[in-house]
Design brief:
With 118 residues, the protein is α+β, with helices and mostly antiparallel strands. It has a single domain (2-117), classed as Glutaredoxin. Helices cover 46% and strands 17% of the residues. A 4-stranded mixed β-sheet has the order 2-1-3-4, with helices on both faces. Helix 2 packs across helix 5.
């Protein structure tokens, strides 16, 4: 089993996800969004499943700093903005094969782990 985790090391939820997988000896490919931003195509994959609104962390400090509370952007424009401003994302974004999660989702990760064991 191998997962891909998108996030930043400062994020408590990202650190919790990395710890979750490490404790279960699951191989993780970590993409630090401060070093390498997620591409619009990668974000589009998550947006197709959850919707663009689910990817935006409206409670983040960066969201407030940029004054996006009243912003009315198209989905495509949001994806571009999220690619340029990774701190606006709800983290972590996790991919296992064709399955995706956004934010802390330990129940889903446990299901993936159990399925990989059987």
């Amino acid at each position: 089993m191998e997962v891909q985790v998108f996030g930043v090391r400062k994020s408590a939820d990202t650190r919790a996800a990395l710890r979750f997988f490490a404790e279960r000896r699951i191989k993780v490919h970590f993409v630090d969004l401060n070093e390498r931003a997620a591409s619009v195509g990668e974000l589009r994959r998550f947006a197709q499943k959850f919707g663009v609104a689910a990817l935006v962390d409206r409670d983040s400090r960066r969201f407030g700093d940029l004054g996006l509370g009243a912003a009315r952007l198209s989905d495509e424009r949001w994806l571009e903005k999220l690619s340029l401003e990774p701190l606006l994302l709800r983290m972590p974004l996790v991919r296992y094969q064709q399955q995706l999660t956004t934010g802390p989702a330990q129940e889903t990760w446990n299901a993936w782990y159990a399925a990989s064991k059987s």
